[in-house]
Design a protein that fits this description.
224 residues; single chain; mainly alpha; 9 helices; 0% strand
Length: 224
């Protein structure tokens, strides 16, 4: 290889290297925010191992950033397509669907890799705690709520509710915003409610009765 070609190759490698660093530090404030979010989740795990705490914090924070990168790039491309007035509506929708599908595939791959990384550091119950931390604890709160509202649920019905919420949480973990995360749970709660209605529950009545019981419970607490 000639000296000039070697110099060009070295220059290209340096450009790639420094570009990578620039990308990594593109938004220091966002990196700080993701680190703080991850730290709060890890603090609740009570690992009592500083090295492991740092490793898990780094994994979770990087997951937040990796998800954001995929979603931001997808949204930016969708915005361009919607602003392209030369495209017919049908063609726009076709391109948008392809972009969403591509992003979903990338997110699914990232999700699996993320769980594998967590699995190398944490037990199954700790991984579950991380999942709940990433989704604001909606699963345990919602599951407890259904059992409190419907105290006579059968074991089979409880199992259906729990499994549906677990599936919702897997999707919600990858949500790019609080709204998107809650939307996933809302979707699966709709399925749960349809299931319970078919099981003979009048959920409007059950919900109204439950709220009365909760109010009465709160009143009694204040009297104590």
């Amino acid at each position: 290889m000639s000296k000039s070609k070697l110099n060009i190759s070295v220059l290209m490698l340096l450009l790639v290297f420094f570009n990578g660093i620039a990308q990594q530090h593109l938004d220091p404030e966002y990196i700080k925010v993701t680190n703080e979010r991850a730290s709060k989740i890890v603090a609740k795990l009570e690992l009592a191992n500083p090295a492991k705490e740092k490793a898990v914090t780094d994994i979770i924070a990087q997951q937040f950033r990796d998800l954001s990168k995929i979603q931001d790039e997808r949204d930016a491309e969708i915005k361009k397509i919607k602003e392209d007035t030369s495209l017919a509506k049908e063609k726009q929708n076709e391109k948008i669907d392809k972009l969403k599908s591509k992003a979903d595939t990338a997110i699914d791959k990232l999700h699996k890799a993320y769980l594998k990384k967590l699995g190398a550091q944490l037990s199954e119950d700790k991984i579950t705690a991380v999942k709940d931390g990433m989704t604001y604890g909606v699963l345990p709160i919602t599951y407890a709520g259904y059992q409190d509202m419907l105290p006579n649920l059968t074991a089979e019905q409880k199992d259906y509710i729990y499994k549906a919420l677990v599936e919702a949480r897997e999707h919600a973990m990858d949500g790019g915003s609080s709204k998107e995360k809650h939307a996933w749970f809302g979707k699966y709660k709709g399925r749960i409610n349809n299931y319970l209605s078919k099981q003979g529950y009048d959920l409007n009545k059950e919900s109204a009765d439950w709220h009365k019981r909760v109010e009465e419970r709160e009143k009694n607490k204040k009297k104590e």
